[in-house]
Amino acid sequence: MIDLAIIGGGPAGLTAGLYATRGGLKNVIMYEKGMPGGQITSSSEIENYPGISVVTDGISFMAPWSEQCTRFGLKIEMKSVERVEKISNGFCLHFEDGSKQEAKCVIVCTGSKPRRAGIKGENEFFGRGVSTCATCDGFFYKGKEVAVLGGGNTAIEEALYLSEICSKVYLIHRRDEFRAAPNSVERAKKCEKIEFVLNAVVDEVLGDSSGVTGLRLSYKDGKTRQIEVPGIFVFVGLDVLNNVLSDNNGGFICEMTPQGNVKVNLKMQTSLPGLWACGDLRQDAPKQVVCAAGDGAVAALDAIEYLRNHH
């Protein structure tokens, strides 16, 4: 039985691993099905992390984290956790390959993934012109026109990123006001390559055997429009990855919000002693790297205290 299992290798999980091992825990394993780094690695631009004054992309930003966070003994295993089970003396992690691992306590940092918009044709052409990652797929549209759907920070930032690669970016938003940071919106408005398409929704993604060919839009005033583009980037929110906390009865092993986030207190403790939730997974998550890292540190320090008092 290990002391602490950390599920998820984004900023929250890596920071939890750093603080737990530096704080004296000897047997700590972080489970991540792919390379550590988390969702932020798909971001094209990070300019608001304290202490990092140079604007950088997500992959470059996260590159040093793994090395630093394993310096004090954190082990990282590329295994996918299917679910967490509460047992008498701790927890049992069930992996996709059928294996198991018992742990005295668990910090869950599985994060979230980009939400689909639910547009007709979106699923059909996903990966063939429909994308949720400008950093991953923007290069394929060099010198071409593309569309971005959304009104939050990610949508604006990725539209700006794509404007440096593509000949034109249609920024489509269902309202005329944005949830994004005002300075980012102003930068986008000053960019000659970005055309704001406001008070509009995408009714259908059009395409053929070669992929996306265009979009059919409708405006609030009833007018319609068709835009010919080979690609659309969808940024309409995030879905919480909470499956690992599911039980066998269709519920969850700890208390959740109606939206599927984990209920936690200020120490990131869930309703189940010995189980913490951090980052996008928890309730009221600000969905910022600095906040996720803070969550991980808080949970790890409390886990050290928990193990000192209970084992």
Blueprint (SSEs and pairs):
Layout: E1 2-7, H1 11-22, E2 28-31, H2 58-69, E3 75-77, E4 81-87, E5 90-95, E6 100-108, E7 112-114, E8 130-131, H3 134-137, E9 145-149, H4 153-163, E10 168-173, H5 182-190, E11 194-198, E12 200-208, E13 211-219, E14 224-227, E15 232-234, E16 238-240, E17 275-277, H6 289-310
What does this molecule look like?
The longest helix has 22 residues. α1 packs parallel to α2 and α4 runs parallel beside α5. The protein has six helices and 17 strands. It is an alpha/beta fold and 311 residues long.
**How can the largest sheet be summarized?**
7 strands, mixed
Mean pLDDT equals: 95
Shape label: elongated
Tell me the name of the CATH class of the largest domain: Alpha Beta
Task: Tell me the number of helical segments per DSSP (H or I, 4 or more residues long).
Answer: 6
Tally the beta strands.
17
State the low-pLDDT regions, or none.
none
Determine the strand fraction and express it as a percent band: 25-35%
* Fraction in helix: 10-25%
CATH fold field value of the largest domain: FAD/NAD(P)-binding domain
**Domains, number:** 2
Radius of gyration over all CA atoms, rounded: 21 Å
Order of helices and strands: EHEHEEEEEEHEHEHEEEEEEEH
Give the name of the CATH superfamily of the largest domain: FAD/NAD(P)-binding domain
The rounded distance between the terminal residues' Cα atoms is 12 Å
In the CATH hierarchy, the architecture of the largest domain is 3-Layer(bba) Sandwich
Kindly name the structural category: alpha/beta
